[in-house]
Design goal:
Chain lengths: 298, 362
């Protein structure tokens, strides 16, 4: 038997390190080597700076959190019915879940409902739309709520309860107008090409890997409906390259994230659906008039 | 003279311990008048033993007596803690400063640190007779490699994948077998466990990070780890085969324990009560089998792991059945009596596997 020498160990170890790095770097290069699969210009609403209180003080790196939302009819009133970074979308029905690989089963019995709900999350491709109809609906609903509660408060002058509700609805409207993410998950599938054919606008529709797990609407009843919970995206924290950190440093040091459109960033997604930040620009303080809108119309 | 391969560190230490035991027993036999060596034989044995000890001390810095052995234990503990602290320090050092460099420099630093720490480990191994510094360096090298791949993923937003576990396992095994380090063998085995169970999960369509939520996904890797030392001899690495068996048994018993209490998380599409009952029985049977097989094959780690899980299975059932309904004195009395019963069974088992009196005598 050949003797196992230190030289051979050294060679194998070096080969392992070099090969592993080559595979990882080659994959990153491959992802970025073609025309980007998606290219969106996002604001601080969608790419949030890390919360200062949650930040690891000794980490000198900087990543931005991709903030996304789901249209969820079961969400409460004061989040405009649209949950953040996870939720049960209205469009995700039994047929859609079956197409994603989940077995719908018989939901009319307890056993069938349990069998459906105990399936574990699967990986899918999520389609996110920036500033589309879903966001318009969220904005309209927040305006409607604010108007309704303001009217109720005006009709019940002196009632603290009505005044508080009106204030909360007003705050929610302000957040919806100025700081909430406009990026909504609007579809999910298993084939990126098919999804891109369905949503051809690369500057408005973002394709990214995520996970969906089964959920039930009207869980306790015989009329329970199969749906799914969009539980996470695989690359929710996006590293900011050193050369692009300049415009973010001033925003990073002041206040907590979500305080408005202080910067805009160009987010590209490559052929492996892995994102990267290609450009960051500081948005000058809107002295007058409406803020720059990167996608939809106000 | 036969051309024997050079012994490993553990084998050398075992030989030195055996020499000490032999000398003690020889002194007793001489005191009791059973055996008396003539001066020439005594001198030959002493010279041979002295030569062996000298050789092993030079090669491995083995412990020559019990005081040295006690000190060695302290050094092993210090080396282990130091290795953990240094590996952690590497992580924090990089996090502290990496944001101040461009991506090219970050990648260069990561690759260079992996290569340098690995090279240092191999260089030290040739010079460090004690092995303690090699252990420190090996763990730092492994930490650097893990950090290397993790940070590349972070810098380039690479989708997290279970495939990263494979090169980590390969590096851990390379360092473990080169430097005779059980700590890194355990790290490598953990990577293999995580990877195999993730793969088994993804065959069922589960996203790999959730594969652990079906405990049965650990059973294939349990079998693999238990069988591996039977297929590949580990004569030169005395502590390695038991480690594989212990991890194999843990991958069997822990999922069984979970499934015996939460049948809903099983792959099996059956009534959860039935699944829990089935795994309770399977747990007892598997633990008893591990004890029996361990006693038969001379695998103390299998016996001990089997006993520990047999007791855990038994006591958790006792708790479920009787904690609420029994007075506490009676509950603990039952627990104590069960322990006595287990002792009696093990005593009987020990007698069964003991060689008959006189066997092995010339």
């Amino acid at each position: 038997m050949t003797k196992w020498t230190r030289g051979r160990t050294l060679a194998i170890g070096i080969a392992l390190i070099v090969l592993t790095n080559a595979v990882a770097l080659g994959g990153a290069w491959w992802n970025r080597s073609a025309t980007p699969e998606s290219a969106l210009t996002l604001s601080e609403r969608e790419l949030g700076l890390p919360w200062r209180s949650l930040r690891f003080a000794e980490d000198s790196g900087l990543s931005l959190n991709l903030n996304w939302r789901v249209g969820d009819r079961e969400a409460g009133e004061f989040v405009s019915g649209y949950t953040f970074n996870g939720g049960t979308p209205e469009w995700l029905d039994a047929a859609h879940m079956a197409a994603l690989g989940f077995a719908p089963g018989d939901l009319s019995s307890d056993r069938g409902r349990q069998r459906y709900a105990r399936q574990l999350p699967r990986e899918v491709i999520l389609v996110m739309e920036l500033g589309g109809p879903m966001w318009q609906r969220a904005l309209a609903r927040a305006r409607e709520d604010a108007g309704r509660h303001a009217a109720a408060a005006a009709a019940n002058v002196g009632s603290k309860q009505f005044a508080d509700r009106a204030k909360r609805a007003g705050d929610e409207l302000a957040r919806e107008e100025n700081s909430n993410s406009r990026l909504f998950v609007i579809d999910a599938g298993l084939d990126a090409r098919q999804l891109r054919e369905k949503y051809p606008d690369r500057s408005r529709f973002l394709l990214i890997h995520g996970t969906v797990r089964p959920a039930l609407r009207d869980r306790g009843s015989d009329a329970a409906q199969a749906t799914g919970y969009v539980s996470r995206i695989r690359t929710g924290r996006i590293h900011v390259p050193h050369a692009l950190r300049g415009p973010l440093e001033s925003a990073r040091g002041v206040g907590e994230p979500g305080s408005g459109d202080r910067f805009s960033a160009e987010l590209l997604v490559g052929r492996r659906l892995e994102p990267w930040i290609a450009d960051v620009k500081q948005v000058p303080k809107a002295a007058d008039g409406p803020r720059a809108n990167h996608a939809g119309e106000f | 003279m036969t051309d024997r391969p050079a012994p490993s560190r553990v084998e050398a230490q075992q030989r030195v311990d055996d020499i000490r035991t032999f000398q003690d027993e020889l002194a007793r036999l001489e005191d009791e008048g059973i055996l008396r060596l003539d001066p020439a034989q005594r001198a030959a044995i002493q010279a041979h033993h002295a030569s062996l000890r000298e050789q092993f001390s030079t090669l491995f810095d083995v412990d020559r007596d019990s005081r040295a052995k006690q000190l060695s234990l302290g050094m092993r503990v210090a080396s282990f803690l130091g290795a953990l602290a240094l590996a952690t320090s590497v992580f924090f050092l990089f996090y502290q400063f990496w944001g101040h460099f461009g991506e090219t420099a970050q990648v260069a630093i990561l690759i260079a640190s992996s290569l340098a720490s690995f090279g240092l480990t191999i260089w030290l191994q040739a010079r460090d007779a004690t092995g303690y510094f090699t252990k420190l360096a090996a763990l730092v090298a492994f930490a650097c490699f893990v950090l290397n791949i993790t940070m590349l993923g972070q810098i380039f937003n690479i989708t997290p994948s279970d495939k990263a576990l494979l090169p980590w396992a390969a590096m851990a095994f390379l360092l473990a077998y080169t430097c005779d380090l059980r700590l890194l063998l355990a790290a490598g085995i953990c990577c293999v466990i995580a990877w195999v169970q993730a793969r088994v999960g993804t065959w069922h369509g589960i996203y790999w990070l959730h594969a652990g939520e079906r405990p049965e996904n650990f059973f294939p890797v349990a079998a693999l780890l238990f069988i591996f030392p039977l297929l590949v001899a580990h004569r030169r690495f005395p502590g390695f085969a038991p480690l594989y068996r212990v991890f194999g048994l843990l991958c069997l018993f822990i999922p069984m324990l979970i499934l015996s209490h939460w049948g809903r998380v099983s792959h099996l599409d059956l009534d959860p009560d039935l699944i829990e009952g089935g795994y309770q029985v399977a747990g007892f049977v598997a633990a008893a089998l591990a004890i029996w097989l361990g006693a038969r094959r001379g695998w103390p780690e299998a016996v001990n792991t089997g006993i520990v899980f047999f007791v855990i299975f038994l006591y958790t059932k006792f708790y479920q059945w009787w904690w609420e309904i029994m007075p506490k004195y009676l509950f603990f009395l039952v627990v104590g009596l069960a322990a006595v019963l287990i002792l009696l069974i093990l005593k009987r088992l020990r007698r069964t596997f003991q060689p008959p009196a006189g066997e092995g005598a010339p």
